[in-house]
Specification:
The protein is of the alpha/beta class. It is built from eleven helices and 14 strands. The chain is 35% helix and 26% strand.
């Protein structure tokens, strides 16, 4: 997949671009349906699929909200590539773009710059100043600017249209199965591996500590998880919490001190500074303090047993 940052001179003209627009936070089953429609129409016309997204959520700029999302830009790009997108265009969302009318966006960016031939939009897609751009407006402008338009209906889960808001709430509540049903894949986080105290390694359980870049995460606790590295999958224990066994004082701000530690089984590589995606399979237990390091190590061994047993059972069911 080619990623293009900003409106600049293209190194080559994209052949018969079939494009969609949106944040696609979570790249959930509804988003996947849109991408599938984009790819299908591009294939039918022997063209190329294009996703146009933004470097930050428009609400962060328009409403001055702090960043919080299911998938960071880096995470979305990995998922777009996984789902077979040919090109992703990342636009920097600022006040200038926020004030651009929907028709100007279509004329200046989609038509004049990209030379779009077909636009695919989700049922609740809105863009342009005042969120005036939608499937109805795009259809009205199709003949004027010479492109085709396709709309995608919502994807329903448990009687409701799948939405990023509902998924975000499910993840924060720890409802992994519900979130997975809407995502069409396990709940996952993507973070950069950063250096911490190295205490895990001294205990015999080295961990990758993640900086999530404002991605939402499940509640505190120990989880059975999975990572994929160099084409291979590895089981892992992931602790989200405040490390109460080693905390020396009461912590006033959970957001400031919360840590995500990933102990990857059968894995020895150094991955500091690299991005790691962690998929959540199930919760094993709440985070609890231990009186001694030996008690903590004994519990980690029990957690590993639970992880391996449940993973093996799931594998047998799949087979």
């Amino acid at each position: 997949m080619e990623t293009i940052y900003g409106i600049k001179e293209l190194t080559r003209k994209i052949h018969y671009p079939v494009a969609t627009i949106g944040m696609f936070d979570g790249v959930h089953r509804g988003h996947q349906k849109i991408i599938e429609c984009v790819r299908y129409n591009a294939l039918q016309k022997r063209g190329e699929s294009v996703v146009i997204t933004f470097d930050r959520h428009p609400k962060n700029v328009i409403e001055n909200r702090p960043p919080s999302f299911i998938t960071s830009l880096e995470h979305r790009l990995k998922l777009f590539e996984h789902f077979g997108v040919d090109h992703t265009i990342v636009l920097g969302f600022d006040q200038k773009l926020a004030q651009m009318t929907a028709e100007d966006f279509i004329h200046e960016i989609l038509v004049s710059w990209l030379d779009v031939k077909c636009i695919v939009l989700g049922f609740n897609c809105h863009f342009g100043k005042g969120r005036e751009g939608n499937i109805t407006l795009v259809r009205k402008l199709a003949d004027k600017y010479g492109f085709e338009v396709y709309g995608c209906p919502p994807v329903i889960y448990r009687g409701q249209a799948i939405s990023s808001t509902a998924i975000r709430q499910a993840i924060l509540k720890g409802e992994l199965e519900i979130a997975m049903g809407m995502l069409g894949r396990p709940v996952s986080i993507l973070g950069t591996v950063v250096k911490k105290s190295g205490r895990g390694r001294t205990l015999g359980y080295p961990t990758a500590n993640l900086n999530l870049h404002h991605e939402v995460r499940p509640p505190r606790g120990v989880y059975g998880t999975r990572i994929r590295w160099a084409g291979q999958e590895h089981l892992a224990l992931t602790n989200i919490g405040l490390r109460p066994t080693f905390a020396k004082e009461s912590l006033s701000s959970e957001d400031e001190t919360l840590e995500i530690e990933v102990h990857i089984l059968t894995f020895q590589e150094s991955i500091y500074g690299l991005d790691l995606e962690v998929q959540f399979l199930f919760k094993i237990r709440d985070e609890i303090p231990f009186k001694t390091v030996d008690e903590l190590k004994a519990q980690i061994e029990k957690d590993k047993e639970v992880l391996l047993k449940r993973a093996l059972t799931a594998q047998h069911i799949e087979e």
